[in-house]
Amino acid sequence: MDKIQSDCPYPGCFFCVMKEANPSKRRASVLKFFRELPSQDDDGQVLPISGLWNTAMAHPNDPEFINLGIFESMAALIWKGLKNRRWLAHDQNIYIPYYAAHIIGSYTMNMEEFAERAVRAGVIPPLVELLRGRLTWVEQRVAVRALGHLATYPSTFPAVADHGEVLELAIQLASSSLEIVYSHFYQFVDRRLGYHCDLLTRGMGGVEMESRKAEEWASQLQCWSLQLINCFAFKPEFLHDICKADFLVKLPGMWGGLVNENSPAGVGLLRTICQSKVGRGHVANIPGTIDALCNIARSSDDWQYMAVDCLIWLVQDASTCHKVIDKVAPTLIDLADISTLGDYKKLGDTIVTVLQECIQQSGNSRGAISTQTKAEIDELLRSKQNLKLEKSMPKEDLHIKQAAALVVKLEGNSLFSSGNIAGAAEKYSEALALCPMKSKKERVVLYSNRAQCYLLLQQPLSAISDATRALCLHSPVNRHAKSLWRRAQAYDMLGFAKESLLDAILFINECSQSNDPDLSLKQNKVPDYAERLVKKQMRAAWLFREAALKHGGVHCEGDASDAFGQDADDSEWETASESDADNDARGEADDETEWKNDGHQEDFCEKS
Protein backbone atom coordinates (compact mmCIF):
# COMPACT_ATOMS: atom_id res chain seq x y z
CA MET A 1 0.00 0.00 0.00
CA ASP A 2 2.82 2.41 0.88
CA LYS A 3 4.41 1.86 -2.53
CA ILE A 4 1.13 2.54 -4.29
CA GLN A 5 0.66 5.77 -2.37
CA SER A 6 4.23 6.97 -3.04
CA ASP A 7 3.81 6.46 -6.79
CA CYS A 8 0.47 8.33 -6.93
CA PRO A 9 0.72 12.03 -7.82
CA TYR A 10 -2.42 12.91 -5.82
CA PRO A 11 -2.10 12.97 -2.00
CA GLY A 12 -5.05 11.20 -0.39
CA CYS A 13 -6.12 9.78 -3.74
CA PHE A 14 -9.51 8.07 -3.44
CA PHE A 15 -8.46 5.12 -5.59
CA CYS A 16 -5.40 4.57 -3.44
CA VAL A 17 -7.52 4.82 -0.32
CA MET A 18 -9.83 2.11 -1.65
CA LYS A 19 -6.87 -0.25 -2.03
CA GLU A 20 -6.06 -0.06 1.67
CA ALA A 21 -6.06 -3.64 3.02
CA ASN A 22 -6.81 -2.70 6.62
CA PRO A 23 -10.61 -2.18 6.94
CA SER A 24 -10.30 0.21 9.86
CA LYS A 25 -7.74 2.41 8.11
CA ARG A 26 -9.76 2.25 4.91
CA ARG A 27 -12.92 3.51 6.60
CA ALA A 28 -11.03 6.29 8.34
CA SER A 29 -9.42 7.36 5.08
CA VAL A 30 -12.71 7.30 3.16
CA LEU A 31 -14.39 9.32 5.92
CA LYS A 32 -11.58 11.89 5.72
CA PHE A 33 -11.83 11.95 1.93
CA PHE A 34 -15.57 12.71 1.97
CA ARG A 35 -15.13 15.45 4.58
CA GLU A 36 -12.31 17.20 2.76
CA LEU A 37 -13.49 16.75 -0.85
CA PRO A 38 -15.86 19.78 -1.02
CA SER A 39 -13.16 22.15 0.23
CA GLN A 40 -10.45 21.01 -2.18
CA ASP A 41 -9.65 22.87 -5.38
CA ASP A 42 -7.16 20.41 -6.86
CA ASP A 43 -7.42 19.32 -10.46
CA GLY A 44 -8.74 15.86 -11.18
CA GLN A 45 -11.60 15.85 -8.67
CA VAL A 46 -14.01 14.54 -11.29
CA LEU A 47 -12.15 11.23 -11.49
CA PRO A 48 -12.96 9.92 -8.00
CA ILE A 49 -16.50 11.30 -8.22
CA SER A 50 -17.10 9.49 -11.50
CA GLY A 51 -15.77 6.38 -9.76
CA LEU A 52 -18.29 6.91 -6.95
CA TRP A 53 -20.99 7.33 -9.61
CA ASN A 54 -20.11 3.91 -11.05
CA THR A 55 -20.09 2.36 -7.58
CA ALA A 56 -23.47 3.87 -6.67
CA MET A 57 -25.07 2.47 -9.81
CA ALA A 58 -23.51 -0.96 -9.39
CA HIS A 59 -24.12 -1.29 -5.62
CA PRO A 60 -26.95 1.07 -4.63
CA ASN A 61 -27.82 -0.95 -1.52
CA ASP A 62 -24.32 -1.00 -0.05
CA PRO A 63 -24.33 1.07 3.18
CA GLU A 64 -20.56 1.61 3.47
CA PHE A 65 -20.34 5.04 1.85
CA ILE A 66 -23.67 6.09 3.35
CA ASN A 67 -22.24 5.58 6.83
CA LEU A 68 -19.08 7.49 5.94
CA GLY A 69 -20.75 10.72 4.79
CA ILE A 70 -21.20 10.50 1.04
CA PHE A 71 -24.54 12.36 1.13
CA GLU A 72 -23.07 15.30 3.05
CA SER A 73 -20.15 15.42 0.63
CA MET A 74 -22.32 15.33 -2.51
CA ALA A 75 -24.70 17.99 -1.19
CA ALA A 76 -21.76 20.26 -0.44
CA LEU A 77 -20.32 19.73 -3.92
CA ILE A 78 -23.63 20.71 -5.54
CA TRP A 79 -23.73 23.87 -3.43
CA LYS A 80 -20.16 24.64 -4.40
CA GLY A 81 -20.99 24.35 -8.08
CA LEU A 82 -24.01 26.62 -7.68
CA LYS A 83 -22.21 29.30 -5.69
CA ASN A 84 -18.69 29.25 -7.15
CA ARG A 85 -18.94 29.55 -10.93
CA ARG A 86 -15.18 30.09 -11.26
CA TRP A 87 -14.53 26.73 -9.63
CA LEU A 88 -17.27 25.15 -11.74
CA ALA A 89 -15.62 26.36 -14.95
CA HIS A 90 -12.17 25.12 -13.90
CA ASP A 91 -10.70 21.84 -15.12
CA GLN A 92 -13.58 19.31 -15.49
CA ASN A 93 -15.54 20.48 -12.46
CA ILE A 94 -18.56 21.20 -14.66
CA TYR A 95 -19.34 17.46 -14.48
CA ILE A 96 -19.35 17.31 -10.69
CA PRO A 97 -22.87 18.60 -9.81
CA TYR A 98 -24.35 16.12 -12.30
CA TYR A 99 -22.43 13.18 -10.83
CA ALA A 100 -23.19 14.27 -7.26
CA ALA A 101 -26.96 14.44 -7.86
CA HIS A 102 -26.89 11.14 -9.72
CA ILE A 103 -25.07 9.47 -6.83
CA ILE A 104 -27.72 10.74 -4.39
CA GLY A 105 -30.46 9.37 -6.63
CA SER A 106 -28.83 5.98 -7.01
CA TYR A 107 -28.32 5.44 -3.30
CA THR A 108 -31.90 6.46 -2.45
CA MET A 109 -33.85 4.54 -5.09
CA ASN A 110 -34.24 1.28 -3.14
CA MET A 111 -33.64 1.85 0.57
CA GLU A 112 -35.87 4.06 2.74
CA GLU A 113 -33.19 4.06 5.42
CA PHE A 114 -30.72 5.57 2.96
CA ALA A 115 -33.30 8.16 1.92
CA GLU A 116 -33.75 9.19 5.55
CA ARG A 117 -29.98 9.60 5.91
CA ALA A 118 -29.91 11.68 2.74
CA VAL A 119 -32.60 14.04 4.06
CA ARG A 120 -30.75 14.47 7.35
CA ALA A 121 -27.60 15.20 5.34
CA GLY A 122 -29.35 18.16 3.71
CA VAL A 123 -29.51 16.97 0.10
CA ILE A 124 -32.96 18.38 -0.69
CA PRO A 125 -32.19 22.14 -0.84
CA PRO A 126 -29.35 21.83 -3.39
CA LEU A 127 -31.38 19.35 -5.43
CA VAL A 128 -34.27 21.82 -5.52
CA GLU A 129 -31.91 24.50 -6.81
CA LEU A 130 -30.87 22.18 -9.63
CA LEU A 131 -34.54 21.47 -10.30
CA ARG A 132 -35.10 25.21 -10.69
CA GLY A 133 -32.71 25.14 -13.65
CA ARG A 134 -29.86 26.97 -11.94
CA LEU A 135 -27.46 25.02 -14.16
CA THR A 136 -28.84 23.14 -17.20
CA TRP A 137 -31.43 20.54 -18.19
CA VAL A 138 -28.86 17.78 -17.70
CA GLU A 139 -28.64 18.56 -13.98
CA GLN A 140 -32.43 19.01 -13.81
CA ARG A 141 -32.78 15.45 -15.06
CA VAL A 142 -30.77 13.88 -12.23
CA ALA A 143 -32.23 16.26 -9.62
CA VAL A 144 -35.82 15.31 -10.44
CA ARG A 145 -34.77 11.65 -10.42
CA ALA A 146 -33.30 11.95 -6.91
CA LEU A 147 -36.23 13.99 -5.56
CA GLY A 148 -38.63 11.43 -7.04
CA HIS A 149 -36.90 8.67 -5.09
CA LEU A 150 -36.99 10.69 -1.87
CA ALA A 151 -40.69 11.49 -2.36
CA THR A 152 -41.53 7.80 -2.78
CA TYR A 153 -41.05 6.94 0.90
CA PRO A 154 -43.61 7.88 3.58
CA SER A 155 -40.88 8.98 5.98
CA THR A 156 -39.12 11.33 3.55
CA PHE A 157 -42.01 12.64 1.44
CA PRO A 158 -42.86 15.41 3.93
CA ALA A 159 -39.32 16.78 3.67
CA VAL A 160 -39.71 17.06 -0.10
CA ALA A 161 -43.22 18.50 0.15
CA ASP A 162 -42.02 21.14 2.63
CA HIS A 163 -40.34 22.79 -0.34
CA GLY A 164 -43.59 24.06 -1.77
CA GLU A 165 -42.14 24.92 -5.16
CA VAL A 166 -41.13 21.31 -5.92
CA LEU A 167 -44.56 20.28 -7.21
CA GLU A 168 -44.97 23.38 -9.34
CA LEU A 169 -41.48 22.99 -10.77
CA ALA A 170 -42.11 19.32 -11.57
CA ILE A 171 -45.37 20.18 -13.38
CA GLN A 172 -43.61 22.88 -15.39
CA LEU A 173 -40.78 20.50 -16.24
CA ALA A 174 -43.10 17.67 -17.30
CA SER A 175 -44.90 20.08 -19.63
CA SER A 176 -41.81 21.73 -21.10
CA SER A 177 -39.01 19.16 -20.86
CA LEU A 178 -39.14 18.03 -24.49
CA GLU A 179 -39.07 21.62 -25.73
CA ILE A 180 -36.22 22.49 -23.36
CA VAL A 181 -34.00 19.64 -24.54
CA TYR A 182 -34.86 20.28 -28.18
CA SER A 183 -34.18 24.02 -28.11
CA HIS A 184 -31.20 23.90 -25.75
CA PHE A 185 -29.43 20.90 -27.22
CA TYR A 186 -30.97 18.96 -30.08
CA GLN A 187 -31.82 21.72 -32.54
CA PHE A 188 -28.40 23.26 -33.12
CA VAL A 189 -25.61 20.72 -33.37
CA ASP A 190 -22.86 23.33 -33.38
CA ARG A 191 -24.09 24.87 -30.10
CA ARG A 192 -24.14 21.71 -28.04
CA LEU A 193 -22.17 21.95 -24.81
CA GLY A 194 -19.22 19.62 -24.84
CA TYR A 195 -19.81 18.17 -21.41
CA HIS A 196 -23.43 17.40 -22.35
CA CYS A 197 -22.21 15.45 -25.36
CA ASP A 198 -19.67 13.59 -23.22
CA LEU A 199 -22.25 12.67 -20.59
CA LEU A 200 -24.73 11.50 -23.22
CA THR A 201 -22.32 9.25 -25.11
CA ARG A 202 -19.46 8.69 -22.64
CA GLY A 203 -17.20 9.90 -25.44
CA MET A 204 -18.09 6.86 -27.57
CA GLY A 205 -20.29 8.39 -30.27
CA GLY A 206 -20.79 11.20 -32.72
CA VAL A 207 -23.65 13.53 -33.55
CA GLU A 208 -26.10 10.76 -34.41
CA MET A 209 -25.63 8.98 -31.09
CA GLU A 210 -25.82 12.29 -29.22
CA SER A 211 -29.18 12.95 -30.86
CA ARG A 212 -30.55 9.51 -30.04
CA LYS A 213 -29.42 9.75 -26.42
CA ALA A 214 -30.81 13.29 -26.14
CA GLU A 215 -34.24 11.96 -27.10
CA GLU A 216 -33.92 9.21 -24.50
CA TRP A 217 -32.82 11.66 -21.79
CA ALA A 218 -35.56 14.13 -22.69
CA SER A 219 -38.10 11.35 -22.28
CA GLN A 220 -36.59 10.42 -18.93
CA LEU A 221 -36.67 14.05 -17.81
CA GLN A 222 -40.39 14.15 -18.54
CA CYS A 223 -41.16 10.70 -17.11
CA TRP A 224 -39.19 11.29 -13.93
CA SER A 225 -40.97 14.62 -13.47
CA LEU A 226 -44.27 12.75 -13.79
CA GLN A 227 -43.06 10.18 -11.27
CA LEU A 228 -42.33 12.97 -8.78
CA ILE A 229 -45.77 14.51 -9.39
CA ASN A 230 -47.29 11.06 -8.92
CA CYS A 231 -45.96 10.94 -5.35
CA PHE A 232 -47.88 14.14 -4.61
CA ALA A 233 -51.01 12.87 -6.41
CA PHE A 234 -51.55 10.23 -3.71
CA LYS A 235 -52.19 13.08 -1.27
CA PRO A 236 -55.64 14.69 -1.71
CA GLU A 237 -54.39 18.09 -0.54
CA PHE A 238 -52.20 18.42 -3.64
CA LEU A 239 -54.73 17.33 -6.27
CA HIS A 240 -56.14 20.80 -6.89
CA ASP A 241 -52.65 22.01 -7.78
CA ILE A 242 -52.07 19.04 -10.09
CA CYS A 243 -55.48 18.88 -11.75
CA LYS A 244 -55.35 22.06 -13.79
CA ALA A 245 -57.21 21.66 -17.07
CA ASP A 246 -54.27 22.67 -19.28
CA PHE A 247 -52.09 20.03 -17.61
CA LEU A 248 -54.66 17.21 -17.52
CA VAL A 249 -55.39 17.53 -21.21
CA LYS A 250 -51.68 17.07 -22.00
CA LEU A 251 -51.12 14.06 -19.76
CA PRO A 252 -52.31 11.27 -22.11
CA GLY A 253 -49.89 12.52 -24.76
CA MET A 254 -46.94 12.27 -22.39
CA TRP A 255 -45.53 8.81 -23.00
CA GLY A 256 -42.10 7.29 -22.74
CA GLY A 257 -41.87 6.76 -26.47
CA LEU A 258 -40.04 3.80 -27.91
CA VAL A 259 -36.90 4.96 -26.07
CA ASN A 260 -38.47 4.78 -22.61
CA GLU A 261 -41.25 2.23 -22.91
CA ASN A 262 -40.91 1.02 -19.31
CA SER A 263 -42.47 4.18 -17.91
CA PRO A 264 -46.26 4.55 -17.61
CA ALA A 265 -45.70 8.31 -17.89
CA GLY A 266 -48.87 10.40 -18.27
CA VAL A 267 -51.41 7.58 -18.12
CA GLY A 268 -49.77 6.32 -14.93
CA LEU A 269 -50.28 9.71 -13.29
CA LEU A 270 -53.87 9.84 -14.54
CA ARG A 271 -54.49 6.44 -12.97
CA THR A 272 -53.29 7.73 -9.60
CA ILE A 273 -55.43 10.85 -9.95
CA CYS A 274 -58.50 8.77 -10.80
CA GLN A 275 -58.14 6.69 -7.65
CA SER A 276 -59.57 9.59 -5.65
CA LYS A 277 -63.01 11.13 -5.92
CA VAL A 278 -61.54 14.62 -6.15
CA GLY A 279 -59.26 13.55 -8.97
CA ARG A 280 -62.07 11.83 -10.88
CA GLY A 281 -64.12 14.99 -10.64
CA HIS A 282 -61.39 16.99 -12.34
CA VAL A 283 -60.67 14.41 -15.05
CA ALA A 284 -64.35 13.97 -15.92
CA ASN A 285 -64.55 17.65 -16.82
CA ILE A 286 -61.86 17.39 -19.53
CA PRO A 287 -63.42 15.77 -22.64
CA GLY A 288 -60.09 15.64 -24.46
CA THR A 289 -58.56 13.61 -21.65
CA ILE A 290 -61.48 11.18 -21.67
CA ASP A 291 -61.15 10.72 -25.44
CA ALA A 292 -57.44 10.05 -25.10
CA LEU A 293 -57.98 7.54 -22.29
CA CYS A 294 -60.45 5.69 -24.54
CA ASN A 295 -57.81 5.51 -27.27
CA ILE A 296 -55.20 4.12 -24.87
CA ALA A 297 -57.70 1.62 -23.43
CA ARG A 298 -58.31 0.25 -26.92
CA SER A 299 -54.65 0.22 -27.92
CA SER A 300 -51.85 -2.34 -27.66
CA ASP A 301 -49.98 0.02 -25.33
CA ASP A 302 -48.26 -1.77 -22.43
CA TRP A 303 -50.18 0.56 -20.11
CA GLN A 304 -53.58 -0.22 -21.61
CA TYR A 305 -54.81 -1.61 -18.29
CA MET A 306 -54.14 1.72 -16.57
CA ALA A 307 -56.46 3.53 -18.98
CA VAL A 308 -59.06 0.80 -18.48
CA ASP A 309 -58.83 1.33 -14.71
CA CYS A 310 -59.45 5.04 -15.17
CA LEU A 311 -62.52 4.47 -17.33
CA ILE A 312 -64.00 1.88 -14.97
CA TRP A 313 -63.51 4.10 -11.90
CA LEU A 314 -65.06 7.09 -13.68
CA VAL A 315 -68.15 5.03 -14.57
CA GLN A 316 -68.43 3.49 -11.09
CA ASP A 317 -68.43 6.94 -9.47
CA ALA A 318 -72.02 8.27 -9.44
CA SER A 319 -70.73 11.85 -9.45
CA THR A 320 -68.79 11.39 -12.70
CA CYS A 321 -70.64 8.59 -14.51
CA HIS A 322 -73.23 10.85 -16.12
CA LYS A 323 -70.46 13.13 -17.44
CA VAL A 324 -68.45 10.42 -19.17
CA ILE A 325 -70.69 7.44 -19.88
CA ASP A 326 -71.59 8.36 -23.46
CA LYS A 327 -67.88 8.66 -24.36
CA VAL A 328 -66.64 5.75 -22.27
CA ALA A 329 -69.32 3.10 -22.86
CA PRO A 330 -68.42 2.30 -26.51
CA THR A 331 -64.81 1.65 -25.50
CA LEU A 332 -65.74 -0.56 -22.56
CA ILE A 333 -68.23 -2.47 -24.71
CA ASP A 334 -65.47 -3.17 -27.25
CA LEU A 335 -63.35 -4.57 -24.40
CA ALA A 336 -66.12 -6.64 -22.81
CA ASP A 337 -64.92 -9.93 -24.31
CA ILE A 338 -61.39 -9.62 -22.96
CA SER A 339 -60.46 -12.24 -20.42
CA THR A 340 -57.10 -11.38 -18.88
CA LEU A 341 -55.11 -8.16 -19.20
CA GLY A 342 -51.94 -7.88 -17.15
CA ASP A 343 -52.88 -8.72 -13.58
CA TYR A 344 -56.56 -8.30 -14.40
CA LYS A 345 -58.50 -11.55 -14.26
CA LYS A 346 -61.96 -11.73 -15.87
CA LEU A 347 -61.74 -8.10 -16.93
CA GLY A 348 -64.63 -8.53 -19.36
CA ASP A 349 -66.91 -9.69 -16.55
CA THR A 350 -65.93 -6.65 -14.50
CA ILE A 351 -66.76 -4.34 -17.40
CA VAL A 352 -70.16 -5.96 -17.93
CA THR A 353 -70.99 -5.65 -14.24
CA VAL A 354 -69.97 -2.00 -14.15
CA LEU A 355 -72.05 -1.13 -17.21
CA GLN A 356 -75.03 -3.09 -15.89
CA GLU A 357 -74.90 -1.17 -12.61
CA CYS A 358 -74.67 2.05 -14.58
CA ILE A 359 -77.88 1.18 -16.45
CA GLN A 360 -79.66 0.33 -13.20
CA GLN A 361 -78.59 3.59 -11.56
CA SER A 362 -79.55 5.65 -14.59
CA GLY A 363 -83.16 4.59 -14.13
CA ASN A 364 -83.32 6.95 -11.16
CA SER A 365 -81.97 10.00 -13.02
CA ARG A 366 -83.45 11.19 -16.29
CA GLY A 367 -81.04 12.21 -19.02
CA ALA A 368 -78.00 10.70 -17.33
CA ILE A 369 -77.38 8.34 -20.24
CA SER A 370 -78.28 8.74 -23.89
CA THR A 371 -80.75 6.45 -25.64
CA GLN A 372 -78.04 5.20 -28.00
CA THR A 373 -75.63 4.36 -25.19
CA LYS A 374 -78.36 2.58 -23.27
CA ALA A 375 -79.25 0.53 -26.36
CA GLU A 376 -75.58 -0.45 -26.87
CA ILE A 377 -75.23 -1.55 -23.26
CA ASP A 378 -78.50 -3.47 -23.45
CA GLU A 379 -77.23 -5.28 -26.54
CA LEU A 380 -74.05 -6.23 -24.66
CA LEU A 381 -76.07 -7.55 -21.74
CA ARG A 382 -78.24 -9.61 -24.10
CA SER A 383 -75.17 -11.14 -25.70
CA LYS A 384 -73.84 -12.16 -22.30
CA GLN A 385 -77.22 -13.65 -21.46
CA ASN A 386 -77.11 -15.61 -24.73
CA LEU A 387 -73.72 -17.00 -23.73
CA LYS A 388 -75.27 -18.34 -20.52
CA LEU A 389 -78.17 -19.86 -22.45
CA GLU A 390 -75.79 -21.59 -24.86
CA LYS A 391 -74.38 -23.62 -22.01
CA SER A 392 -77.70 -25.46 -21.68
CA MET A 393 -78.48 -25.52 -25.40
CA PRO A 394 -78.49 -28.94 -27.14
CA LYS A 395 -75.43 -29.53 -29.30
CA GLU A 396 -77.62 -30.05 -32.34
CA ASP A 397 -79.08 -26.56 -31.99
CA LEU A 398 -75.60 -25.06 -31.65
CA HIS A 399 -74.47 -26.88 -34.77
CA ILE A 400 -77.44 -25.47 -36.68
CA LYS A 401 -76.52 -21.94 -35.61
CA GLN A 402 -72.89 -22.55 -36.55
CA ALA A 403 -73.84 -23.84 -39.98
CA ALA A 404 -76.18 -20.92 -40.62
CA ALA A 405 -73.52 -18.41 -39.61
CA LEU A 406 -70.99 -20.13 -41.87
CA VAL A 407 -73.30 -19.90 -44.88
CA VAL A 408 -73.86 -16.18 -44.30
CA LYS A 409 -70.15 -15.59 -43.78
CA LEU A 410 -69.35 -17.26 -47.10
CA GLU A 411 -71.93 -15.04 -48.76
CA GLY A 412 -70.08 -12.09 -47.28
CA ASN A 413 -66.80 -13.38 -48.66
CA SER A 414 -68.33 -13.66 -52.11
CA LEU A 415 -69.70 -10.11 -51.96
CA PHE A 416 -66.34 -8.79 -50.83
CA SER A 417 -64.55 -10.57 -53.69
CA SER A 418 -66.98 -9.04 -56.19
CA GLY A 419 -66.36 -5.53 -54.80
CA ASN A 420 -69.63 -5.13 -52.88
CA ILE A 421 -67.94 -4.05 -49.64
CA ALA A 422 -71.05 -2.61 -47.97
CA GLY A 423 -72.99 -5.77 -48.74
CA ALA A 424 -70.16 -7.89 -47.31
CA ALA A 425 -70.18 -5.86 -44.09
CA GLU A 426 -73.91 -6.48 -43.70
CA LYS A 427 -73.43 -10.22 -44.18
CA TYR A 428 -70.69 -10.32 -41.53
CA SER A 429 -73.07 -8.50 -39.17
CA GLU A 430 -75.73 -11.15 -39.86
CA ALA A 431 -73.20 -13.91 -39.31
CA LEU A 432 -72.17 -12.38 -35.97
CA ALA A 433 -75.80 -12.35 -34.88
CA LEU A 434 -76.09 -16.06 -35.71
CA CYS A 435 -72.65 -17.16 -34.51
CA PRO A 436 -72.64 -18.80 -31.04
CA MET A 437 -70.99 -16.55 -28.45
CA LYS A 438 -68.67 -19.34 -27.36
CA SER A 439 -67.26 -19.77 -30.89
CA LYS A 440 -64.54 -17.24 -30.21
CA LYS A 441 -62.22 -18.14 -33.07
CA GLU A 442 -64.93 -17.65 -35.67
CA ARG A 443 -66.11 -14.41 -34.07
CA VAL A 444 -62.52 -13.14 -34.29
CA VAL A 445 -62.65 -13.86 -38.05
CA LEU A 446 -65.99 -12.12 -38.50
CA TYR A 447 -65.06 -9.01 -36.54
CA SER A 448 -61.72 -8.74 -38.32
CA ASN A 449 -63.28 -9.22 -41.74
CA ARG A 450 -65.91 -6.59 -41.02
CA ALA A 451 -63.16 -4.24 -39.80
CA GLN A 452 -61.52 -4.60 -43.21
CA CYS A 453 -64.81 -3.67 -44.88
CA TYR A 454 -65.15 -0.58 -42.70
CA LEU A 455 -61.62 0.44 -43.64
CA LEU A 456 -62.44 0.30 -47.34
CA LEU A 457 -65.71 2.15 -46.68
CA GLN A 458 -63.69 4.93 -45.00
CA GLN A 459 -65.25 4.32 -41.58
CA PRO A 460 -62.16 4.18 -39.34
CA LEU A 461 -64.00 4.43 -36.01
CA SER A 462 -66.07 1.35 -36.82
CA ALA A 463 -62.94 -0.43 -38.05
CA ILE A 464 -61.16 0.32 -34.76
CA SER A 465 -64.14 -0.95 -32.78
CA ASP A 466 -64.32 -4.26 -34.68
CA ALA A 467 -60.56 -4.81 -34.74
CA THR A 468 -60.46 -4.19 -30.99
CA ARG A 469 -63.23 -6.73 -30.41
CA ALA A 470 -61.34 -9.29 -32.50
CA LEU A 471 -58.15 -8.64 -30.52
CA CYS A 472 -60.00 -9.02 -27.21
CA LEU A 473 -61.52 -12.34 -28.25
CA HIS A 474 -58.25 -13.67 -29.57
CA SER A 475 -55.98 -15.82 -27.44
CA PRO A 476 -53.53 -14.44 -26.54
CA VAL A 477 -55.14 -11.02 -26.22
CA ASN A 478 -53.97 -8.28 -28.62
CA ARG A 479 -52.03 -10.72 -30.78
CA HIS A 480 -54.24 -11.26 -33.85
CA ALA A 481 -51.97 -10.04 -36.63
CA LYS A 482 -54.50 -9.01 -39.26
CA SER A 483 -56.65 -7.16 -36.73
CA LEU A 484 -53.58 -5.31 -35.52
CA TRP A 485 -52.78 -4.25 -39.06
CA ARG A 486 -56.32 -3.13 -39.78
CA ARG A 487 -56.51 -1.11 -36.58
CA ALA A 488 -53.11 0.43 -37.36
CA GLN A 489 -54.49 1.59 -40.71
CA ALA A 490 -57.67 2.93 -39.11
CA TYR A 491 -55.67 4.89 -36.53
CA ASP A 492 -53.56 6.24 -39.39
CA MET A 493 -56.70 7.49 -41.16
CA LEU A 494 -57.63 9.42 -37.99
CA GLY A 495 -54.12 10.79 -37.48
CA PHE A 496 -53.43 8.84 -34.26
CA ALA A 497 -49.75 8.25 -34.91
CA LYS A 498 -48.73 6.66 -31.61
CA GLU A 499 -51.57 4.15 -31.58
CA SER A 500 -51.00 3.28 -35.25
CA LEU A 501 -47.27 2.87 -34.63
CA LEU A 502 -47.72 0.51 -31.69
CA ASP A 503 -50.16 -1.69 -33.60
CA ALA A 504 -47.95 -1.75 -36.70
CA ILE A 505 -44.90 -2.79 -34.68
CA LEU A 506 -46.86 -5.52 -32.91
CA PHE A 507 -48.21 -6.67 -36.28
CA ILE A 508 -44.64 -7.09 -37.55
CA ASN A 509 -43.70 -8.98 -34.39
CA GLU A 510 -46.66 -11.32 -34.86
CA CYS A 511 -45.76 -11.87 -38.51
CA SER A 512 -42.25 -12.89 -37.47
CA GLN A 513 -43.74 -15.67 -35.34
CA SER A 514 -46.59 -16.71 -37.64
CA ASN A 515 -46.92 -20.00 -39.49
CA ASP A 516 -49.37 -18.39 -41.91
CA PRO A 517 -47.60 -18.28 -45.32
CA ASP A 518 -49.27 -14.96 -46.15
CA LEU A 519 -48.17 -13.39 -42.87
CA SER A 520 -44.78 -14.94 -42.12
CA LEU A 521 -41.87 -12.71 -43.04
CA LYS A 522 -40.18 -13.97 -46.18
CA GLN A 523 -36.41 -14.14 -45.64
CA ASN A 524 -36.99 -12.17 -42.40
CA LYS A 525 -37.98 -9.14 -44.48
CA VAL A 526 -40.62 -6.79 -43.12
CA PRO A 527 -43.44 -6.23 -45.68
CA ASP A 528 -42.95 -2.97 -47.56
CA TYR A 529 -46.38 -1.66 -46.63
CA ALA A 530 -45.73 -2.27 -42.92
CA GLU A 531 -42.27 -0.73 -43.08
CA ARG A 532 -43.66 2.39 -44.75
CA LEU A 533 -46.36 2.81 -42.13
CA VAL A 534 -43.91 2.34 -39.25
CA LYS A 535 -41.52 4.92 -40.72
CA LYS A 536 -44.35 7.38 -41.27
CA GLN A 537 -45.68 7.03 -37.74
CA MET A 538 -42.24 7.16 -36.14
CA ARG A 539 -41.83 10.58 -37.73
CA ALA A 540 -45.33 11.67 -36.74
CA ALA A 541 -44.94 10.37 -33.15
CA TRP A 542 -41.40 11.71 -32.78
CA LEU A 543 -41.01 13.07 -29.24
CA PHE A 544 -39.56 16.36 -30.46
CA ARG A 545 -42.14 16.91 -33.19
CA GLU A 546 -44.15 19.64 -31.45
CA ALA A 547 -41.00 21.40 -30.26
CA ALA A 548 -39.53 21.29 -33.76
CA LEU A 549 -42.71 22.73 -35.26
CA LYS A 550 -42.79 25.48 -32.64
CA HIS A 551 -39.16 26.47 -33.08
CA GLY A 552 -39.08 26.10 -36.84
CA GLY A 553 -36.35 23.51 -36.61
CA VAL A 554 -35.81 20.31 -38.51
CA HIS A 555 -34.52 16.88 -37.64
CA CYS A 556 -30.73 17.14 -37.46
CA GLU A 557 -30.36 13.98 -39.53
CA GLY A 558 -32.49 15.09 -42.46
CA ASP A 559 -34.64 17.80 -43.94
CA ALA A 560 -38.07 19.02 -42.92
CA SER A 561 -39.84 16.17 -44.70
CA ASP A 562 -37.76 13.67 -42.70
CA ALA A 563 -38.71 15.41 -39.47
CA PHE A 564 -42.39 15.75 -40.08
CA GLY A 565 -43.30 12.83 -42.32
CA GLN A 566 -44.20 14.93 -45.35
CA ASP A 567 -42.69 12.56 -47.87
CA ALA A 568 -45.61 10.12 -47.72
CA ASP A 569 -48.81 11.39 -49.28
CA ASP A 570 -52.33 10.11 -48.71
CA SER A 571 -52.50 8.33 -52.04
CA GLU A 572 -49.53 6.16 -51.16
CA TRP A 573 -51.19 5.06 -47.96
CA GLU A 574 -54.47 4.33 -49.69
CA THR A 575 -52.54 2.16 -52.11
CA ALA A 576 -50.87 0.36 -49.23
CA SER A 577 -54.23 -0.34 -47.63
CA GLU A 578 -55.81 -1.54 -50.84
CA SER A 579 -52.82 -3.71 -51.61
CA ASP A 580 -53.17 -5.39 -48.26
CA ALA A 581 -56.87 -5.91 -48.87
CA ASP A 582 -56.04 -7.57 -52.17
CA ASN A 583 -53.63 -9.88 -50.37
CA ASP A 584 -56.41 -10.76 -47.95
CA ALA A 585 -58.84 -11.40 -50.78
CA ARG A 586 -56.79 -14.18 -52.30
CA GLY A 587 -58.42 -16.73 -50.01
CA GLU A 588 -56.88 -18.85 -47.28
CA ALA A 589 -57.77 -22.15 -45.63
CA ASP A 590 -60.00 -21.74 -42.59
CA ASP A 591 -58.42 -24.69 -40.82
CA GLU A 592 -58.12 -23.19 -37.35
CA THR A 593 -61.75 -22.16 -36.90
CA GLU A 594 -64.20 -24.31 -35.00
CA TRP A 595 -66.14 -25.17 -38.16
CA LYS A 596 -65.29 -27.50 -41.03
CA ASN A 597 -65.40 -25.97 -44.48
CA ASP A 598 -66.06 -29.21 -46.38
CA GLY A 599 -65.01 -27.95 -49.79
CA HIS A 600 -66.73 -24.56 -49.68
CA GLN A 601 -65.07 -21.47 -51.13
CA GLU A 602 -62.14 -20.44 -48.93
CA ASP A 603 -62.26 -17.36 -46.70
CA PHE A 604 -60.90 -14.15 -48.12
CA CYS A 605 -58.73 -13.24 -45.19
CA GLU A 606 -58.53 -15.44 -42.16
CA LYS A 607 -56.89 -18.55 -40.84
CA SER A 608 -57.61 -17.83 -37.21
Automatic annotation (TrEMBL):
InterPro entries the UniProt entry points to: ARM-like (IPR011989), ARM-type_fold (IPR016024), ARM_7 (IPR058868), TPR-like_helical_dom_sf (IPR011990)
Domain ARM repeat N-terminal plant: 6-244
Superkingdom assignment: Eukaryota
Coiled-coil segments on the chain, per record: none
Start and end residues of each stretch annotated as Disordered: 559-608
Any Pfam family hit: ARM_7
Compositional bias ranges of the Basic and acidic residues kind: 583-608
UniProt xrefs under SUPFAM superfamilies: ARM repeat, TPR-like
Ranges of compositional bias, category Acidic residues: 567-582
Name of the protein in its database record: ARM repeat N-terminal plant domain-containing protein
